[in-house]
Every structure is written in structure tokens, then in C-alpha cells.
Specification:
single chain; about 300 residues; alpha/beta; Arc Repressor Mutant, subunit A; D-Maltodextrin-Binding Protein, domain 2; 11 strands; globular
């Protein structure tokens, strides 16, 4: 089975859309549909529920997804081993999606422009535990995690980055109070969140529980793994979301979205940069790490 077929299934379900998957994979939407159809015919089960506005996995789809993710990870490991064998200069980095969308484009652009000799670059989006596992397994050389809890980071060099701030946002057309308020004014609206286990969802669930609430108390809770789609939907006035402020700073400046802070909520979680302890011997990795510091206006450590 070709790995791109499994990758297409994973991306289609993660993004909730054939068109979004096609855009990310740089293929046509019909190519995405054909690959999914091939998988369904090959295994003899429907793998995707197409009945709603967002694609969801069927029970069979979840089983295939679990194995597909393992195969994709194995292929990444193989490519990493081959890269080391061929001694190609490169950088492998992993971070949560919110950090990647908000900061990685500028960091990458600056790094690429100043390092024309780089042969391989691998940037991945994962949750904090997956970032740490990837570093321990040698898949990544460096990573950033966003977290409220303590992780075992023994064996790594760690650097504290400025905390991330998470806020509720809504379209001005909803007329919600912008200043510090209570959670009750949001409960009559649809709540858009990412999948369980992601940084923003974990912090939101923690805050709601401490205030005697849960996501089920909202009008509806809609889970979508595409941050761009969530933000666009909220900009259109179709609900609210709890999101990293760094992702929506421009929307707030342009008054496209309103910012809301909730009394009794913890609105911050920590950011930590993690690198292998031998990173100072790798000039490329050291320069990439310096680019992260620069993005936050920090002095090189």
C-alpha cells in the first residue's frame, strides 16, 4: 500500500475536508477522493462519514487511522535514519499547531534565507507528549511544547519561552461583552474546539471543570482539527472558540474578532523549547534555535 494513501486519509480526517486535504497535499480534490475510495474498496469498509459538514472517521476508519499513523511515523523514522546515513545537513523540528501557525513561517523564512546549504528540513505539528516522545526517539532534534502540567524533560536542554495566552474570541456581530466577564454569557452559543488532548482543549476543560461547567453546557460542541477553519467560522459569527491569542492578533487589531477573558479562568500555559543536549555541536540546529529566541525578542542562550 502506498504511504500517500494513508497520509491522505489521515489529513482528510484531521482537516475535516477533502478540499483542505488536497490543498495541504498539493493534489486535486478528485485525487484525494480517489485515494480514499481505493482504501475503502481495498479494505471493504467505508472509512469516512461524509454525511456532515466535517468529515469524520467511521469505526473502521478509526482502526485504519490508528495503524496508518504508526506506519507514517515509521516512515518518518526511516527517512531520518537515511538522512543521518547520507550525512545531509538538515533540521528536524516539532511543535503544537498553534505555535507552528503563529511563529514558524517567519522563523523558517529567516533560517532558509541565511542557510542555503540546508539539504533537508522536517517540520511537524504534534501534541506536547508526541513532541517529547519524538525527541527521545531521535525523530526530532528540537521542539516546542505548550503545557500547564509538568513533563519529564530529563536528558534535554530546556529553555523557557514567553507564556502563551489563551482567550475566548467571538465576532463583534454577536455583541458579547469584551471585558472580563463570566462563562455564562457564552453557553448559549456553539463552541468550536480542537480534538481532545490538544493544548487549548485541555486548558479549557480544566477551567470549565473548576467553574462547575463542561463543554456539554454550550449550545453545541463542534470538534474540528483545522485551526484556520475554526477561526474563519467564528469570524463569520457562527460561534465562539478558546484559542491562542497569538493566532488571532491580527483579527483583534482589525476588530474582526473580540477578545474575552473569563473570571476564574487560567488563561496562560507555559512554552518550553526542548533540544538534544548535544545541540551546541550542531551549527545548523544552534542557528535554528537562535532564530526561535529572536522571534520572541530573547537573547541567545
Amino acid at each position: 500500500m502506498k504511504s500517500e494513501y494513508f497520509n491522505t486519509l489521515v489529513e482528510a480526517i484531521a482537516l475535516g475536508s477533502f478540499s483542505k486535504a488536497a490543498e495541504k497535499l498539493f493534489v486535486t480534490q478528485s485525487a484525494v477522493s480517489r485515494r480514499i475510495q481505493f482504501l475503502e474498496e481495498h479494505y471493504g469498509y467505508p472509512l469516512i462519514d461524509r454525511s456532515g459538514p466535517i468529515l469524520l472517521p467511521t469505526e473502521a476508519g478509526r482502526i485504519v487511522m490508528e495503524k496508518a499513523n504508526k506506519m507514517i511515523a515509521l516512515e518518518k523514522e526511516l527517512l531520518q535514519d537515511l538522512q543521518e546515513y547520507e550525512h545531509k545537513p538538515g533540521v528536524t523540528f516539532c511543535c503544537p499547531p498553534a505555535f507552528g501557525i503563529a511563529y514558524l513561517p517567519a522563523i523558517m523564512q529567516s533560517f532558509i534565507l541565511s542557510h542555503s546549504n540546508v539539504a533537508e528540513m522536517n517540520y511537524s505539528f504534534e501534541m506536547p507528549d508526541k513532541v517529547i516522545d519524538g525527541l527521545r526517539e531521535g525523530i526530532y532534534q528540537a521542539g516546542v511544547i505548550e503545557h500547564a502540567e509538568n513533563f519529564d524533560l530529563s536528558g534535554f536542554e530546556t529553555f523557557s519561552l514567553p507564556d502563551d495566552t489563551l482567550i475566548f474570541v467571538s465576532s463583534p456581530r454577536l455583541g458579547l461583552v469584551e471585558t472580563e466577564t463570566t462563562i455564562d454569557q457564552f453557553l448559549s452559543y456553539d463552541l468550536y474546539i480542537r480534538k481532545e488532548g490538544c493544548c487549548s482543549s485541555k486548558l479549557l476543560t480544566y477551567n470549565l471543570k473548576n467553574n462547575g461547567k463542561s463543554p456539554a453546557d454550550f449550545s453545541r460542541t463542534i470538534v474540528c482539527d483545522d485551526l484556520h477553519l475554526i477561526i474563519k467560522t467564528v469570524c463569520d459569527g457562527n460561534g465562539v472558540t478558546f484559542v491562542s491569542r497569538s493566532l488571532v492578533e491580527q483579527h483583534l487589531r482589525e476588530k474582526i474578532l473580540c477578545e474575552h477573558r473569563i473570571r476564574g479562568f487560567n488563561h496562560t500555559h507555559h512554552r518550553t523549547l526542548i533540544v538534544n543536549r548535544s545541540y551546541s555541536d550542531n551549527s545548523l540546529l544552534k542557528d535554528f534555535v537562535a532564530g526561535i529566541f529572536k522571534a520572541f525578542g530573547m537573547m541567545e542562550c
